[in-house]
Structure formats: structure tokens, C-alpha cells
């Protein structure tokens, strides 16, 4: 079998109604699969006005809004009519992108139909507990995730560091890599636009510290703002540029009243915004890859990031940026002060990061997942996987 023989039933709790790195990766994957001749059908909750135009055909799954985070939905069990639709589609592999009720139901159905099920890991859900005052629940959430992932034939991590963590957590012992790509037509140093910066009142010679992403507390906004407080206390000349939107924007604006909030950007506008920064600061520990880190590297920016899954596989400490223990605002401030104080250091780190980013192309990384699909199907047919 080759890619044209694949019939993939994909299950996601959020395929396109919120714009984030995981959803964009899934949509790029589906576009690639369809372009290569595979058959794909997506099962996900839907909304009237999605954030992304969906690639492929979506079958809507009933869901309810998550309390305190109504922009996200929690899918309900697979209805009987949808199970009939799945059976009629005749998938030969199930791809599950979220370990929720829909994902558990999809694994059950795959077992009943005698087909392999794989899961892609996009978020470290267990770490979310610490942002809601429930850190004591992390071991419980980790155990729930382990039960789900170990029922899959294989799981795919977006980075080597995340794959190693999954093995250490005993989530599954068949762990492959499906990394992320970069659109170099959008993210590149030539997109830098000082005139655009001036429109926000940013002087050309002021080092700009950038934040890119959804404005939610799980992105480490508290650590980011605490670090900026320390820079200001030291008298380090800088400007903060925030790109993104989300429910924590008002909180972030109050914490950083001197920052520039450029709002949501996409496509070439996002590429321009990133390239117009002088460094990226990414203190988050919840990502499994860190698309924004790779985008910044492609734009020739040094990256200061937490030592966490994803970033640890992309950032070379002392070469393309600095890796700092999570939550260490004082050490983050040291790293940012270093790059704020040296144009040459920024140039050297940015050049190195830009060179590394050339290894990541979307078609190449998506083909690696296709090869993984085919391997899992062959192994199940040969009786090498547990049933």
C-alpha cells in the first residue's frame, strides 16, 4: 500500500474553530494527504464562523462550551448516526488528535472495526492544572492520559524532547515523530519592516522583545510579565511587542502598560510582525513543539525560551538563543538583557537559527507521518501490534 490507499478517519476536539498551532498543523496535514491522493474524513465539533477555513470534509460532533474557557468545546460521545458514517467511510486507520471523550470513543470504535488507531500529541494537558490552582491534580491527569495513549497502536510527538518525555511517562512504547514545518515565504528576515514598527511609536534603535501566541495564562504570561518587571528595574532599554489575542489580553495589558499590543496577525502580516521584532521570549512549558519558536528562528531572531519540551529540541543554548529553567524570571531577565545590550549577539544567534530552520518543510514532515501510518497498518496486518 502507498499513500493513495490510505483512508483516514481523523478525530479532533477542535479542528478549526480556534486558530492555534495544533489546528494549523492538522489542516496542513489534511491538505497534503488529499493532494497525495489519500481519502480523509474529519470528525470534530464545529461552529458557524470558524477561525480557519477547513481542509477536507468535516462531520460535526455535538459538544458543549468548556466553563471559564467558552472559546473551546468539549465533544460528547460519538452519536449513532456518526458511527454509521464512519463505518460507511471504511477507514483503514484512525488518527486521534485529542485525548477527550471523542478520542476515547474513536479508539473503542477502531478496536471494534479491527483497524489501527494512532494519536498525535499536541499539548501537555497535564501541565494546565498548575495554571488553575490544581497542580496537585497533575499525576491524576497524567494517569488518565497514559490510559488513553497506551490503547493506541502508536503515538506521534512533534519533537525529540517530547518523544523522550512520553517514553519516560510510559504513555506508549511505540512513539514516532511528526514535527512541524515552516512557510519560509512568510517567515524570513526580509519581512522586517521598521516603518511598520514606527507606526506603533517604536524607535528604530530600541530592542524589541516579542511575544507571539494566544493570550491565555497557560502560555506563561505571568512569568513573561514578571521578567519584564525585572528588566525595567535594571533600566534595560527595550520595548515589548505582543502579537495575538485571547481571553487574558486585558490582564496582560494591565500587567504591561508600556507594551505595544498589535492584536491578531496572520499570513504575511504575521511574518512581518515577527521579523520586525529583535528577539522572541517564549516562557511557556505547555507546548509540545513551539511553532512560534521555529517561526522566529526562520525570521533570524534569537529566542529566549523555557527549558521545556519543544523549545529544547529547537533552541541551541548559547547558539540560537538561550534556554532558561521554567519560571526563573531573574534568569530570563539575564538572557534578555544580554540580547538587548548586543546587536552583534542578536545577529549571530539569529543567523544560526535561520540556518537551522531550513531543515523544516511542511511536505517533508507530513510525509514522515504518512510513512508512520503505513508502517502501523503493515505491522497490524502482520500481527506485530496488540489487538
What does this protein structure show overall?
It comes from Sphingomonas parva. Keywords: Transferase. This protein is of the alpha/beta class. The protein has 2 domains: 3-181 and 361-381, Glycogen Phosphorylase B (Rossmann fold), CATH 3.40.50; 189-357, Rossmann fold (3-Layer(aba) Sandwich), CATH 3.40.50.2000. It has 14 helices and 15 strands. The chain has helices at 21-35, 80-89, 101-113, 138-149, 160-168, 194-198, 221-234, 249-255, 267-275, 291-298, 311-314, 329-341, 343-357, 362-381; strands at residues 7-11, 39-44, 57-60, 63-66, 69-75, 93-96, 117-120, 154-157, 175-177, 208-212, 239-243, 260-263, 279-282, 303-306, 321-324. The strands form 3 sheets. A 7-stranded parallel sheet has the order 3-2-1-6-7-8-9, with helices on both faces. A hairpin with a 2-residue loop joins strand 4 and strand 5. Helix 1 (21-35) packs across helix 14 (362-381), helix 7 (221-234) packs across helix 12 (329-341) and helix 10 packs across helix 13 (343-357). It is elongated. The model has no long low-confidence stretch (mean pLDDT 92).
List the keywords.
Glycosyltransferase family 1 protein, 14 helices, Glyco_trans_4-like_N, Rossmann fold, Glycosyltransferase_grp1, glycosyltransferase activity, 387 residues, transferase, 7-stranded parallel sheet, alpha/beta
Amino acid at each position: 500500500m502507498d499513500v493513495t490507499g490510505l483512508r483516514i478517519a481523523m478525530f479532533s476536539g477542535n479542528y478549526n474553530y480556534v486558530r492555534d498551532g495544533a489546528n494549523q498543523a492538522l489542516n496542513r496535514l489534511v491538505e497534503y494527504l488529499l493532494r497525495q491522493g489519500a481519502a480523509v474524513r474529519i470528525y470534530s465539533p464545529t461552529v458557524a464562523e470558524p477561525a480557519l477555513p477547513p481542509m477536507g470534509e468535516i462531520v460535526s460532533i455535538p459538544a458543549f462550551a468548556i466553563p471559564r474557557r467558552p472559546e473551546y468545546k468539549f465533544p460528547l460521545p460519538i452519536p449513532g448516526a456518526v458511527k454509521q458514517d464512519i463505518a460507511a467511510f471504511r477507514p483503514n486507520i484512525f488518527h486521534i488528535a485529542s485525548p477527550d471523550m471523542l478520542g476515547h470513543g474513536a479508539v473503542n470504535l477502531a478496536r471494534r472495526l479491527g483497524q489501527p488507531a494512532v494519536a498525535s500529541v499536541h499539548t501537555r494537558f497535564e501541565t494546565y492544572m498548575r495554571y488553575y490552582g490544581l497542580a496537585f491534580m497533575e499525576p491524576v491527569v497524567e494517569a488518565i492520559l497514559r490510559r488513553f495513549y497506551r490503547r493506541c497502536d502508536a503515538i506521534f510527538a512533534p519533537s525529540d524532547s517530547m518523544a523522550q518525555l512520553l517514553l519516560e511517562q510510559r504513555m506508549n512504547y511505540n512513539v514516532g515523530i511528526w514535527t512541524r514545518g515552516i512557510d519560509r515565504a512568510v517567515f524570513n528576515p526580509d519581512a522586517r519592516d521598521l516603518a511598520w514598527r514606527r507606526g506603533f511609536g517604536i524607535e528604530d534603535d530600541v530592542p524589541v522583545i516579542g511575544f507571539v501566541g494566544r493570550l491565555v495564562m497557560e502560555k506563561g504570561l505571568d512569568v513573561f510579565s514578571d521578567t519584564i518587571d525585572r528588566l525595567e528595574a535594571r533600566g534595560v532599554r527595550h520595548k515589548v511587542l505582543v502579537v495575538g489575542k485571547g481571553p487574558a489580553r486585558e490582564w496582560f495589558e494591565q500587567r504591561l502598560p508600556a507594551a505595544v499590543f498589535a492584536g491578531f496577525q496572520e499570513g504575511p502580516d504575521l511574518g512581518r510582525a515577527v521579523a520586525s521584532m529583535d528577539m522572541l521570549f517564549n516562557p511557556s512549558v505547555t507546548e509540545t513543539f513551539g511553532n512560534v519558536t521555529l517561526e522566529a528562528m526562520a525570521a533570524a531572531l534569537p529566542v529566549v525560551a523555557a527549558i521545556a519540551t519543544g523549545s529544547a529540541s529547537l533552541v541551541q543554548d548559547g547558539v540560537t538563543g538561550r534556554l532558561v529553567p521554567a519560571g526563573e524570571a531573574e534568569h530570563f531577565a539575564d538572557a534578555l538583557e544580554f540580547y538587548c545590550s548586543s546587536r552583534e549577539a542578536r545577529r549571530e544567534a539569529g543567523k544560526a537559527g535561520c540556518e537551522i530552520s531550513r531543515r523544516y518543510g511542511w511536505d517533508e514532515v507530513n510525509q514522515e507521518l504518512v510513512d508512520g501510518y503505513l508502517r502501523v497498518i503493515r505491522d497490524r496486518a502482520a500481527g506485530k501490534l496488540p489487538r
